[in-house]
């Protein structure tokens, strides 16, 4: 992107295979002018056929097109991730930070595993209210990291031909792997939510969390 910006200027465009125009903004000033000054025009995002529709089933907020559904998803996330809500997560972050320091002191060469454990611990506790200690080798941690890594690779521009030619998804066999990954994701996160549903009213089993917040509002 930097090479393109230096050669063609701070704002340039590339025509993709599906005849969509990819606009590249390589400097802060024009990005602010466009995304803040004209946010109602440019607030949408590129449609990622593999990462957003096939692998995520159109359920990932990050990949949703701007519209009523995106607004509903964002409203729910904002209720649990705004400044006021984030303050309540400080004890979780502090406990995980202390464990992170201990892990690095004990095994300094394995600092990447320690950082992974920290991130996984904070995310899983906030999302699912898990009280038991979390280790980087726990199956749920391994599966979450595997899922997110797979998604980040699929979300790269040009990673899959189906992003440039969406009609490829209708060719038998082309998207089978992506749909398999989507089912694995559903199974993983559904099992976590089911665990919260079973234990949310049992004292000492789960802390209040994002999943319990959503389940309570389904009643």
Automatic annotation (TrEMBL):
The cofactors it requires, by name, are: heme
The UniProt transmembrane annotation reads none
Q: Which Pfam families match?
A: p450
Q: What start-end ranges are recorded for coiled-coil regions in this protein?
A: none
| Molecular-function GO term, any one | heme binding
UniProt keyword terms in alphabetical order: Heme, Iron, Metal-binding, Monooxygenase, Oxidoreductase
Family listed: Belongs to the cytochrome P450 family.
**Name under which the protein is recorded:** Cytochrome P450-dit2
Origin organism is Puccinia graminis f. sp. tritici
